[in-house]
Amino acid sequence: MNLRSTLIVAAALASAVPLSAGTVALWLFDEQEQLYPSSILNDAGPQDWFLVLGRGGAVVPGKFGRALQPIEPAPFKPVFRQREAHEEFSNANRYAFGLETPPRQAGRTVEPMTWFNATFAAAFVNGDEHLRRRPFASPTRGALNLGRGAFTIEFWLKVASGASAEGVVFEVGSGPRGENDVVTRLTFDPVTSEFRLFNQPAGVTARLSTDRAKLTREWTHCAVVYDASRSEVRHYLDGRLKATVAAKLAPLPEGKEDYVSLGRDAVWGRPLAATLDEVRISDEARYREEFPVPGSFSRRYSAPPAPIVLKKGPPLQFPGGRPVGPVVELAGHKHLFIDEALIARQTNTTFTAHPARIEETVLPSGTGWSTVIEDENGLIRLYGEGREGVAVWTSKDGVHFDTPDFGGGRGNQVAASPARRGSVFIDPNAPPAERWKLLAGSHERGGFFVYTSPDGWSFRRNEVTALPFWAGSASTIYYDDQRQLYVAHHRTDYARTPAGKTERNFVRTEVTDLLDAWPFQPVTEARKAEARKSLRLGDRVLDPWWLDNGPLAPGGFSIEYPIAMGPDPAIDPLATDLYNTRALKYPWAPDTYVAFPLWFFHYSEDGPDTRRILSHPDLLLGTGLVETQLAVSRDGLTWKRYPRPAYVPVGNFKGYPMLRPYIAFGLVRRGEELWQYVYTRSSYHDGFREGRTPGVPPSVVQRLSQRLDGFVSIDAPYEKEGGFTTHPLRFTGSRLVLNVDAGATGYLQIGFEDEHGRPVPGLGVDDCVYINGNWVEQEVRWLTSDQKVTTDVSSLAGRVVRLVVRMRGASLYALQFTDRP
Q: Which of 47, 210, 253, 781 makes a 20 to 30 Å CA pair with 708?
């Protein structure tokens, strides 16, 4: 199938939304039970009506997975660690963060929303514009304006045994919130055992008798249907008709401050003494007669997927960078010399990091945070930020990129907003329909979502929010077959520089199921005390951290997860922090993980005046520069960094000022080379002259090249011989091949010792034919006693041996035992 045909098929697949026709919104409430207030509750319907969890709600076990329960809000008292910090914080953000009450508008009776009164259960609000958040979609301009036509509200309900007052199931209002009663509201009254549907524009209250005893005894499916063609409201309980009321409803007037609330009313009163699960709203009279009790509306629970069998790689040989046992089971695996893990003794050798080579500019404008993948047809895809979501560019040769057009106004977009910043990877464990995965954080709304696709051309958002946190930077994700975990890295701004400013670190999440909500550990005082041992937390301006963005937008990561990578005071200059790790598991050798962390050197706030002056507007620079460095690991947990030389440095490439090279996530292998891509900006961070230099684009994409396995080598100097001996090992295979560069005047020899440290006759280091030249895969030869050359080491396969290396003026990148000719 050619590319155009593939795109047409992808577009058709994208339109096949696996939801019942007429679905407007579907709130499953399957997020984490420990969810912080201000976190996003995903809408699994087609129109992105996201809810926010308030202090008056909680996610609890439900009928299917988890559910929403209105609760009594816990006492609220934010902690400011220092009086001056409180004053500084409140003066700058006192209203936006919901920590002080702004003046009430003239004629208003309801206090503006703050953290102190944000006791809703689950809602979204378009008033309260002083708060820090992006506007929500308008319900009165859309299909949630119940009364415009037929509709169905259905949900699973479990009423509390002590329920004694009317509570709100669902309310939509024109606003301003609480200043009027221009609403359509569905409530449940346990005293009269009825649902009440109130529609203010028509002056109608439909009273629908129900069965309180059943609702209290067990989870029950409830449906309220407005049939506009018959001018009647019907109520079904577990599919049985319970009540019919004649009524003609009317739509709400459109409102700039409209809102939706579940579990409480507009001023967060009338809490529902019950638990709600799987609330679905449809723009049709879905039920016209009695019906079988439906199952779950969730894809996950309606048709449970087959158990995931995670692919299993070889056991880790060097956890923490050291051999796991007395004998390294090397088998036929390639070993990269990124560190000393295999080496028992060494003399006059060093490890050297090798920067990438900048080849050419491949796109004249940047792609933002990006991922590169080569698909099974050899097509190189570059995913990045599009106009309103995630987009893709494609190339057959890695140099000349096309911008595909999927038609229907999509352009080259593969995932719509709120997807923005993320990483794409091919999941080896997934069924074909979900093989391509995208982990994307919403910078506009908050929350991280997993998207799936059969081919990477059109992604569908999973029905559950994976992580509830704000996306400060793109996260990276990979599957680790040796640990059988999906591993992702995410930015946290929780730490502080000595001057008290943001110090970025990255935390690590590990899950076995990508499509459920990812568990996390809520922050406690004990956890903070432990974190202070490795993080510079200083005097936190504000606790708890989830208050950070106000009651309508989630806070960022803090220390819910372990730190994956961050500034190291032992080697990093003051106020140098991390923008991304770009970590991945190296695809062409086990026990090898590489990261390309993006480091930011801050000019302002910290350090002496001679440093801080660099951020002065008169110098027309900005707040700092960014470079890409290199880090390596044997288990993805413990990282060794090679800060110099920078993997992608700042500088000038053919006249283009590379001041912020943000490397893309992913590697492409072409023959004996690895290709990477870098999104490069020509300005300083927060630059005063960004985009203002004539003839210089603000950003470009450039291709990088690297030797296969060539990130790090163990080197002996030109002037003097060096070498090393490995730990005891066992191998399989009949030949030994090396990735080595000895140049024209250097050399390397390698041989075997037995388990007692004695040279193996005919295969010792002294018997090795000199390896001279530059080879990515060079077969090792030995000179026998009868002056014949042999490459056969099969007699040693399965035995415990050591390798002895002697080298001068040479770099050794990798070795591998193999049977390949």
A: 781
User: Tokens 């690991």 label which residue?
Assistant: 633
Burial 697-733 (b: 16+ CB within 10 A, else e): bebbbbbbbbbbbbbbbbbbeeeebbbbbbbbbbbeb
Q: How far apart are CA 142 and CA 136, in angstroms?
A: 12
Alpha helices in 622-662 (DSSP H): none
CA–CA distance, 368 with 328 (Å, rounded to integer): 42
Asked if 355 contacts 648 with a C-beta cutoff of 8 angstroms, the reply is yes
Amino acid at site 781: R
Residue 593 CB-density burial (10 A; 0-12 exposed, 13-18 middle, 19+ buried): buried
Q: What is the pLDDT of residues 698-713, one digit of tens each?
A: 999 999 999 999 999 9
pLDDT in tens, 40-52: 999 999 988 999 9
723 contacts 349 by C-beta, under 8 angstroms: yes
d(CA 318, CA 726): 13
Of 583, 645, 636, the closest CA to residue 353 belongs to 645
Phi, psi of 795, deg, nearest 5: -65, -20
Instruction: Give 52's strand partners.
Output: 40, 123
**Do 426 and 454 touch, CB atoms closer than 8 A?**
no
> Is the bond leading into 554 cis (omega within 30 degrees of zero)?
no
Kindly report whether the global pTM for this prediction surpasses the value 0.70: yes
Phi/psi-derived region of residue 23, left when phi > 0, alpha when psi is between -120 and 50, beta in every other case: beta
Phi then psi for residue 431, to 5 deg, are -65, 160
